[in-house]
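Reopening: C-alpha cells for the zinc ion complex, inputs below.
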Amino acid sequence: MMKNIAAFLLLFTLCSSAQTLYTPYDVQKAYKNGTRTPEGNPGSKYWQNHASYTMYVSLTPPDAQLQGQSQITYFNNSPDTLKEIVFRLYPNLYKLGAERDFSLSAEDLHPGVDFTSFKVRGKEQLTDENTSFRQSETVLTIKLEEHLPPASSVNFEIAWNYPLPSKSNVRMGRYDSTSWFVAYWYPQIAVYDDVFGWDKIPYTGQKEYYNNFNDYTVTIDLPESFCAWATGELQNAADIMPDALLEKFTAAHTSEKVINLITKEEAEKGYKMKGREGRVQWNFTAMNVPDFAFALSDHYLWDAVSVVVDSTTMRRALVNAAYKKTSKDYYEVADFSRTIMAYFSHVLPGVPYPYPVMTVYNGQGGMEFPMMCNNGSTSRGGAFSLAAHEIAHTYFPFYMGINEKRYAWMDEGWAVMLPMDLVLEHFPDIDLRNRNAKAFNTVAGTEFEIPLYIPSQQTSGSAYRIHAYTRPGMAYYILRDALGKDNFDKALREYMKRWRGKHPLPNDFFYSFNNYLKDDISWFWKPWFFESGYAELFIKSAVQKKNDLTIIVEREGNLPVPVKLLITLEDGTTISKYETAAVWKTGLKEKKYTFKVSGKVESVLLGDLIIPDKVAENNFVKLSSTKK
Ligand SMILES: [Zn+2]
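Re-run output (same inputs, fresh job):
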C-alpha cells in the first residue's frame, strides 16, 4: 500500500510538474492525438513526412544562370489525406516586388524561378488550363487533382532555371567572379506537421529553417576547371579527380594531420578534373538530412583532415576547408574545425558528429547548412569562434529538426552557448559570455526585449537578434551552472536522444528536461522563456560589526542569475562567495550572507562581466578607506 501511495505521489508530482507551464491549445491537441506527450516525448502516434530528391543542376561561371531538374517522391506518413502540396521557392526572395527583410541590389532581382516543366504524377501542369497552382512569392501551393491518402506517395518532375545573385548575398551567392555558394536554391516541399499542418510562412530573408528530413542524390554539372563541395558524400571521386588529387583526398579521410589537397601553387595553375567534353559531373548523396547545399570555385585552396567523432565505433568524419589564398585565417580553418568537431562529439553536447563530412567554405558572414558552412574571412580567433558557432548548428537545427522560423532560440541559442567554454579555452581574449551579457544588458528592460515564447516570425531587427541568440544563449549557460554540468548535460543528451531526426517544440524541450531530471524547473523556464524582463541584483546593505560582515543582496530583476561576491579587506586579502541562479529557485527577493572576517573590510563587489546585470553602479560598496 505504501508503495502504491508513493507511486501515486510520484505520478502526481510528475503530472503536475508537466502542467506548470503554459501549453498552447495546438500542443494540447497533439497530446490528445498521441503525437506528443506532456512528459516531453514524441507520442506513440508521432509521424512526419519526408521526400526523396534526385536532382541535376548545371552552372557555367561566370554565367549566373542555374539550370536544374528535380525528381521528387513525397511520402505522406500523416493520418490525413492531403489535398494540396506546398512548395517553397526560396530563390524568389530575389523576385521583383517580393516581400523582403533586407533591401537587395537591383541588378540581382529577377522575374522569379522560371519553370519549363512541372509534372505531377507524370502529367504536365504548365498548360493554359492550369488552375491548380497558387503562388505568392516564396510559397507555391499545388492542388492535387487526385488527393494523397495516408501511407502513399506522389511524384513530381520539375525543370527550372533562374539567375543566382552576385551582389546581395543573403546566406548564399557569388564571392568572386567564379566562386559561388549555392543554397536556398531548389523547389523544396514544405513541412506538413502534426501541430501546424502545412508550413506556409514565407521566406523573407531573416527567418531560416524548418525542413523535412529527406534523401538527396544530386549531380552538379560544372566545367572541368572547377571543384565542387557539397552536403553529403562524393560518390565518384575516382572517376573525376586526377590521380594526385584523388590520392590526397583518399588519404585525408584517415589523416590526423591537415593535407593540402590543392595548394596555393596548384590553385594558381588552375584545376583540371577528368572531364568529358570539358565538363564534369560531381555526384553527391546525403540520406535523412534536412537540406542540401553546394559550393564551387576554380581557384580556391583546399585543405582536408579527419577526426574521430565516435569513440565507441571510432568513426571518422572528413573535414574540408575551401578558401581564397588571400584569407589568412583560413589556412588554419580545417584544423580548427577538427578541434571543434571533436569537442562537440566528446564533451558538449557529447553527441557524435552525425555526418560523414564537414566543409567550411570561404564565402561571407556565417551560415550553416548540413555538412557545410559558408563563412567569411575574419581574424584568427574570429575564424575559430565563427566555425564553432556554425558547426554547432549541426545539432540544432539539423540533428534536431528545429522549427527555426517560429523558435529560432531553439537553435541559435544553442549555437551561441555550446561553444562558449571551448572558444575561451583556445582564445582567452574571446569571452562569448561577456559579449552576450553586455549585449543583453543594453536591451533587457526595454520594449525591444521580447519573451522567447513569442514566435520568432513576430520579431525583427535588433529584437530578433536578442530573442534568437543572446537571451537564450545566456539562459542555457546559466541553467547549466544552476543544475550542475553533469545533470544538465545528461538532460540535454536525453532531450537530443528523444527528438533527434524529429521536430521538437518548446514544450517538448521544457518537459523533457523536467521529466528526465524529475524536477520542476519552472522557476527558471517561466522568467527566462515566458516573460519579458531583465537581470538586476544589487547590494542592499553591507555592514561590518567587529568580525561579522553581513551583506544583503536584493533581486530586483525577475531573471534568476548567479550571485558572486568579492570581499576585499584592508590588508588586501579577499574572500569570495559564489552561488548559482538556483539560489532564487524558491522565489526569494533577497538573500542574506554572513562572513567571519579577520580585519576591516574595505569593499564588497557583486557580480562580474559574464553575469547579466542591468545596473552596474549598485554592485559595489566601499566600507572604509585604506590608511596606507
Ligand atoms: Zn547561428
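Residues 2-33 form one domain. Residues 389, 393, 412, 415 surround zinc ion (CB under 6 Å). Marking as resolved unless the reporter disagrees.
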